[in-house]
Write a structure and sequence with these properties.
The protein is α+β, with helices and mostly antiparallel strands. It folds into two domains: 238 residues, 2-Layer Sandwich (Beta Polymerase, domain 2); 57 residues, Methane Monooxygenase Hydroxylase, Chain G, domain 1, CATH 1.20.58. 61% of the residues lie in helices and 14% in strands. It contains nine helices and six strands, in the order ββααββββααααααα. It has a six-stranded mixed β-sheet with strand order 1-2-6-5-4-3. Helix 5 runs antiparallel to helix 6, helix 6 packs antiparallel against helix 8 and helix 8 packs antiparallel against helix 9. The longest helix is centred in the C-terminal third of the chain and has 63 residues. This is Magnesium transporter CorA. Belongs to the CorA metal ion transporter (MIT) (TC 1.A.35) family. It holds the Pfam family CorA. It is found in: Cell membrane.
Length: 306
């Protein structure tokens, strides 16, 4: 059980990590949440969700965690049980970003002063906005990775691997997979929150959340398109390089073939064979072979095959 509480100007924030049956019972006693809510927080869900009840809201959001190493990425679920004076946040795996926000709200006087409002609406906005800002930092990291790959591709850096490109594409895929379904949910949540709190003063803040979310979505879509083009470009360059190598090897084989024919003929064990017993026969045959090779190379050069 990992349950922490923080009180700010009469507003109560309960943060629960990996809820146990004891935590579920505590939350059920804390407020008369709808049974659907208490049943939904027993285990993580796969999809974002927002539900409006008469005296509380239930919000499920997912946040991508992009690893800076080759380790697998994670998608962290955060469930928010919202009343006007109590906020319960639930996470099902370690989420340092949310823990940092909680510690700031608990210990930082400047932040506590900002959060000292009448209802939980500004606290909730602050949490989601901070998590969105961390997503923008993840996008900055991905942008640097894309620029790094782009520079390698156009510098013909052989150290660039398909795995490196695929890893960045997977990062983008994991990011998109978590945020794309949330667009409609977040828009619906803003409408329900305005109705639930009944205050117009929070409208600019809710609008700011939607703007930030839209910015995140546009950035990740742009990065996806860029990586798709870079992947195709790198594939084309690799195919072109492979074609050139095959062409060189084919020309090499075409030059060697007549030389092998000449050496095979003069290597036949026959009683009578021209240019076999003279003192300069060997050099004559070698000269013929060199002449044939040079003529073939000149021919390929004039055809622009070399």
């Amino acid at each position: 059980m990992a349950r922490k509480e923080c009180s700010i100007n009469g507003i109560r924030w309960v943060s629960v990590h990996k809820p146990t049956h004891e935590d579920i019972a505590f939350i059920a006693d804390l407020f008369s949440f709808h049974p659907f809510v208490t049943e939904s927080i027993i285990a993580p869900t796969l999809h974002p969700l927002v539900e409006y009840f008469k005296d509380h809201l239930f919000l499920i959001l997912h946040f991508p965690l992009i690893e800076r190493t080759q380790a697998p990425n994670h998608i962290v679920e955060v469930d928010c049980l919202i009343t006007k004076d109590t906020l319960v946040t639930i996470s099902y795996m370690a989420f340092e970003r949310l823990e940092t926000i909680f510690e700031d709200a608990q210990k930082n006087p400047a932040i506590r002063k900002q959060l000292a409002r009448k209802h939980t609406d500004f606290l909730l906005y602050r949490i989601i906005d901070r998590l969105f800002q961390k997503q923008l930092e993840d996008l900055d990291y991905l942008e640097k990775e894309i620029t790094h790959i782009e520079n390698k591709i156009f510098k013909r850096d052989d150290r660039l691997t398909v795995e490196e490109i695929s890893h960045t594409r997977k990062d983008i895929l994991d990011f998109r997979r978590s945020i794309n379904p949330q667009t409609v949910v977040l828009q619906s949540f803003v409408e329900k929150a305005e109705r639930f709190y009944g205050k117009k003063s929070m409208a600019p803040y809710w609008s700011d959340l939607l703007t930030t979310e839209d910015r995140i979505k546009n950035l990740i879509e742009n990065q996806k398109e860029t990586m798709d083009v870079l992947y195709q470009t790198n594939d084309s360059l690799l195919s072109s390089r492979l074609s050139r190598i095959i062409a060189v090897l084919t020309i090499f084989s075409a030059v060697i073939l007549p030389l092998n024919l000449i050496s095979s003929i003069w290597g036949m064990n026959q009683r009578v064979l021209p240019l076999r017993d003279g003192p300069f026969d060997f050099w004559i045959v070698v000269g013929v072979m060199v002449a044939v090779a040079l003529l073939l190379l000149l021919f390929f050069r004039r055809k622009l095959w070399l």
